[in-house]
Write a structure and sequence with these properties.
By secondary structure, the protein is mostly beta strands. The protein is built from 1 helix and 10 strands. Strands 4-3-2-1-5 form a 5-stranded antiparallel beta sheet, with no helix packed on it. A 5-stranded antiparallel beta sheet has the order 9-8-7-6-10, with no helix packed on it. Strand 8 and strand 9 form a beta hairpin.
Amino acid sequence: MKTFSLLFACVLFAAPAAQAQKANDAVEIEHSGTWYPGKILQAEGDRFFITYDGWSETWNEWVGRDRIRGYSASAPADDAPANTGKFQVGDRVEVEYGMLPAAGRIVYVGENKYEVEFDNKPWGKKWYTEKQIKKL
């Protein structure tokens, strides 16, 4: 019976390791006791550089396997659900950055929000609602 229990425990804990964890895999990430949706940007062994959905890239971080769960490969672009919003990935837009108008492009479409990458590279990316964006 002990052999069975030990074998069962090994299989149970080894199962997540058998699944692929690679760039663009959708995962949940534990931060301060709460699980947040995100994705893997880079994988190196048992370490993963992740981004949190809806949060700025300043929150991106390296985490261990113990802080990610729900491994599932992202769907290819052709299988992505149709965006019913006003903007699509790749659209050229203008948003307010601080108090200045800033040009950029939509790089990610979330639920009721859009991630904009600014033409001024040091500004990086930021999330906006549809009401905050004007198409160029």
